[in-house]
UniProtKB/TrEMBL annotation:
Protein name from the UniProt record: Phenylalanine--tRNA ligase beta subunit
Entry keyword annotation includes Aminoacyl-tRNA synthetase: yes
GO molecular function annotation: phenylalanine-tRNA ligase activity
Principal subcellular localisation of the protein: cytoplasm
Location relative to the cell: Cytoplasm
Domain B5: 288-364
UniProt entry keywords in alphabetical sequence: Aminoacyl-tRNA synthetase, ATP-binding, Cytoplasm, Ligase, Magnesium, Metal-binding, Nucleotide-binding, Protein biosynthesis
Cofactor(s) listed: Mg(2+)
SMART domains given in the database record: B3_4, B5, FDX-ACB
Amino acid sequence: MKASYDWLETYVKPNLSAQELAERFTAAGLAVDSATPLGDDFIFDFDLTTNRPDALCHFGLAREAAVLTGAKLSFPDIHFAEQPATGRLTTQVEILAPHLCHRYAARLIDGVRVGPSPDWLVRRLTAVGQRSINNIVDVTNFVLLELGHPLHAFDFERLIEQRIVVRCAQPGETLVTLDGMTRELSPDMLVICDAKRPVAVAGIMGGAETEISATTTQVLLESAWFTPASVRRTARKLGLHTEASRRFERGADYENVRRAIDRCAQLIAEVAGGDVVGGPVDIAATPRTPTTVRLRHARIAELTGLDVAPSRAADILTGLGFELVMDDEGETEWIVPSFRVDVSIEEDLVEEVVRHVGYADIPTTLPGWHGAGEYLPGAEQRRAVRQTLLAHGFHEAISLSWCAGNTRALAGLPPGVNIANPLDQNENELRTSLLPGLLTAVARNFRFGTEDVRLFEIGKVFHLVDGKLVETERLALALTGRLLPNDWRGQPTMENFHTLKGVVESLCEAARCPQIVITAPPKDELDEHILTSFLPGQVGILQIAGHAASHPLGQLGRISQALAAHFDFKQPVYVAELELTELITGQRTLTAYRPLPRYPRVERDISALFDAALPFAAIESFIRGLAIPELEQIRLRDVFTGAQIPPGQRAVTLNLWYRAPDRTLTDDEVTERHHQVVEALRAQLAATIR
């Protein structure tokens, strides 16, 4: 929906710029996609959810703005003179389908002069994308956009017997609607009729035979409340969706029927002349029962963690139109306004309070727990790690906390803690690593004929530090076999080091761990565990960026031939072991969301010769360090070595994405940024551009 900032200011003075008000609206759950300048005005483009039909009008938005800013909300007085009705200028309304039309009101205006609308009215409608038709129709559209209630104007003299009958269509009836199309009606459709024929499809569109024309002098105004399901069903069946049906099918305001028709009569009398004849015919075929909702003030803190003063909560609800009917020691009862069709339970009232206090103020704390046990630090990240591994096809293994000393020694692990009375003399040490137990589980799967294995284990390991037993929690992974089944050539895709590396990176991302670096261990710094447990050239050290190299987060790689022979593995097995506590309880990065790009990206490639010892991560880091704001992504497209490439070098192809957040980049702009990258690579990394 489009709304005018200048129009809103006729009801409320927010004392905020249009952009600031748009941000306030969005933070309160009424999303504003854009605020576009239009002369001295700004046009808001709202993306409203279907449960907020009350916000599909300027006064509804002004009500929200008043609560958001603390400004005063006002509406122009509705007043006009009513002339006595004569026998010729009277009408009757009969509702034959009260289950579909709960309320119907009509007013007569005599002596109107149909013509162009005044400038202020044309300006208001044009600003929000409405075409001016004539002064009568423009007023009905204005009130629709002002109060959110659809209205329709009939040429009173064209109504047979000058009366209205609200009923379901009869078999075979048709209606030529205002768009010139002949519509076939069915008995499940609600129509507005005169004494003999349909003259409008209820809640959707009027008929051409009774439309306002240049010769119209007498107008019958319609304001009604139709059941949303009926309007939605008819609009879908006819393929006819209008501004009126959009509001009726979401739920119009029952109590707005009279206010809207009086406001429309007032404005028509002002812009088209004429006299409002008699009082309105207002028939409530199905009276509305107000909804009452109880709110326990303590419930706000229980659901959100926010400490909101009772007076603040009451001010917010009162400003939004709720009526307080009971206040008793922290418990209140509110009558829900008729325009808030989305509020029916206590949690809805809590949401109303919280969205105006501010979602951003909700603390990031775990909910209270009164049962046994308690949440451990990093519980959220621990669950995320498990869910991520399950999504990657892993199964959880659980092994005992002790292991055999010979297996531990074969893996190059430090001495374990001896158990005084072991259950098994062959397993007489508390484990110092999860890998022996996990590899035993892999071997057991092999013995039962399962060759495609993905296992993980979360558990404690034990060390003696200054004579005291210290427990730490770790995560271990093992994968082997086929990654994908046989392709069309009958050849499977096998698990490999890069598969394992990708899983580990996904885990770090799920745990919201800071930037992770995976590097090959320097040959002069290899400890006994890495030398004996992993195959040279297929091992990596997991490090948190900025942490000491002597304190790695873990290791990953393919197990050594000696370890594979010990477990009688006939195929490559890849493992990783991480310090889980450090992964999930250390410094975390917050997840930041941003809108989808509105403008296209431009891709450019760079193919160059680099030193073979220079890793891609270093190249990427260097390019990022150029701080080119439009450079969005750097991807490795290809690496090539061969006889055509000079010794000690390799050919690398990079794919770069350029995009600006506020415009489409020109070809000259992209060329300039790309040239900057190319020249920097040539000058500082000694790259030879191919």
